Amino acid sequence: MLPHQIQTKPPIPWLGGKRRLLKHIKPLIPEHQLYVELFFGGGALFFDKTNPKPVPAVLNDIDSELVNLYRVICHHKDEFVRQFDHMLYSREMYNQLKVEAVSGGLTDIQRAANFYARVRQSFAARADSGQSFGLSRKTIRAPRLFNFAQFEQISAKLKTAIIENGSWQDVAYRYDWGGLFSLPIRLIGKRKAIKVILILSNIKISPNL
Ligand SMILES: C[S@@+](CC[C@H](N)C(=O)[O-])C[C@H]1O[C@@H](n2cnc3c(N)ncnc32)[C@H](O)[C@@H]1O
């Protein structure tokens, strides 16, 4: 199967991810020649979305650790996976990774592996320095930290996109060719307010946004 026809899952869980809303979002997607995600995050829609024909995609997020992870999975997948040969799901390992993350001196591949392992092991999938090791009391065994079965597909899919690391306004202005943009908006549901991605077709972005 070709990369633009692949449906896969995001490599990491991400706060505010839209996986559970995909069934509502996907029917709203109009035909498009360019696909731009300005707040990429976990990329639930991009990884799930398939196209019969290749469509240029631009994936942007302001978080440079997250963007480094995607670039490394895209271009250095095998070296990335090798970083986990001796890594365990453990509180000690997690605390060690936190120390290494702030002490610096890591290569981009090591940084990506460090970030990935911290997100997978932290409470609520957060990589902030104040975050702590997370293990549910209901979990009998440690969750599978390093499930790389889908990484071949994830890497192939990322190779179809341009990955940007900027503010959404800059990227929207740069790629304003009348494409399909995804922007977060607030929708008020009956019971609670939820943030979803609104698909806007052919919007024009002003540089003053
Ligand atoms: C809720 S997440 C996006 C969720 C994503 N659509 C998904 O399904 O997983 C929001 C993302 O926007 C990014 N972000 C926040 N402010 C931004 C800005 N000014 N420009 C670009 N990205 C930004 C954050 O780093 C975060 O990853």
Characterise this structure.
By secondary structure, the protein is an alpha/beta fold. It has a single domain, classed as Adenine-specific Methyltransferase, domain 2, CATH 1.10.1020. It is about 35% helix and about 15% strand. It contains eight helices and five strands, in the order H-E-H-E-H-H-H-H-H-E-H-E-E. It has helices at about 20-25, 45-50, 65-75, 75-80, 90-105, 110-120, 150-160, 170-175; strands at about 35, 55-60, 160-165, 180-190, 195-200. Strands 3-2-1-4-5 form a five-stranded mixed sheet, with helices on both faces. Helix 3 (about 65-75) packs across helix 7 and helix 5 (about 90-105) crosses helix 6. The termini are far apart. Bound molecules: S-adenosylmethionine (SAM).
Share of helix among residues? 25-40%
Number of E-state strands: 5
- Globally, the shape reads globular
| Secondary structure tally, helices | 8
What does the largest sheet look like?
Answer: 5 strands, mixed
β-sheet strand percentage = 5-15%
| Helix/strand order | HEHEHHHHHEHEE
CATH-derived architecture: Orthogonal Bundle
- Secondary-structure content class: alpha/beta
Chain-wise SSE layout:
Elements: H1 22-25, E1 35-37, H2 44-48, E2 57-60, H3 64-75, H4 77-82, H5 91-103, H6 108-121, H7 151-158, E3 161-164, H8 168-174, E4 180-188, E5 193-201
Parallel strand pairs: 1-2, 1-4, 2-3
Antiparallel strand pairs: 4-5
Helix pairs in contact: 3-6, 3-7, 5-6
The structure holds S-adenosylmethionine.
Provide a compact summary of the structure.
Helices cover 33% and strands 14% of the residues.
